[in-house]
Write a structure and sequence with these properties.
The protein has two domains: about 50 residues; about 70 residues, 434 Repressor (Amino-terminal Domain) (Orthogonal Bundle). It is mostly helical. The protein has a two-stranded antiparallel ribbon.
Length: about 140
Amino acid sequence: MAVEIHPQLLRSQSGDELVVLTRAEYDALSSAAAEALEDAADIAIYDARIADLHSGRDAILPPEISSAILRGESLLRALRKWRDMTQLHLAHRTNLTQGYLSELEAGRKTATPQTLRVIAKALDIDCAWLGVQKSNRR
């Protein structure tokens, strides 16, 4: 419901110009300002995400992985299943234990960046998908 704004302008004794609004007009302006601030914040977030994508700081995951994450799977488990690997197969390819991979997938342990690079290589994925940069070592 749009409210028409009909401000009344007054001049104070000191010469300052004052604006008088009805409560409905004030509420409508306040609501519009709050929406504008929220929109501006959303636009800033969008712009930051697009900049991250273009700079390579963020990665676009395949839809199958995103869907698995939305169903509650961890990123690592979704990637492993997407590559059609068991934990045992991934353990063999990375020289990590199956139990450790299980702990990582469950979120009970946190991998080092180097371990994440090893896993990314075994899964044949970009390191950025696991939130790490490629190693500069040769």
